Amino acid sequence: EGLSENIEARSIVDRYLEHSRIYIFANGGDVKTFISSADLMTRNLDRSVEVTCPIFDKEYALNLQEIFNIQWADNVKSRILDIAMNNKFVKPGENEPIIRSQYKIHEFLKSISQ
After folding, report:
1. From CA 17, how far away is CA 59, in angstroms rounded?
2. SS3 of 36-56
C-alpha cells in the first residue's frame, strides 16, 4: 500500500513470441528510457543474472517509447493483469481503431528504416 497503486501491467500474447523489456520513467517530465534482458518477475530479479542499461541516444529512446506506446494501445491481443493476476482482454472502444501491436510495430519499424 502506498507504493504500487499507479502501476499497471499488461500482457500481449500474439503470433510472434516477443515481449519488450522497455522501462520508461518520467519523473516530473524528466524521461529516462532503459532496455533490459529481464522482465520484472521474481525469478529474474532474485535468481538470475540480468542486465539493464539506459538509452542515451535521443532518437533511439524516442523509437523505443513509440514501440511502447503502440503496445500499450493494443486492443486485440492485450490483456490487463489485475491485482489478483486475472487477465481481462482490452476491448476497443466505440469508434476506436483496431490496434494489433505486432503488426503496427512492424509498420513502424519499416517506416523508420527507409
Report:
1. 26
2. ECCCCCHHHHHHCCCCEEECC
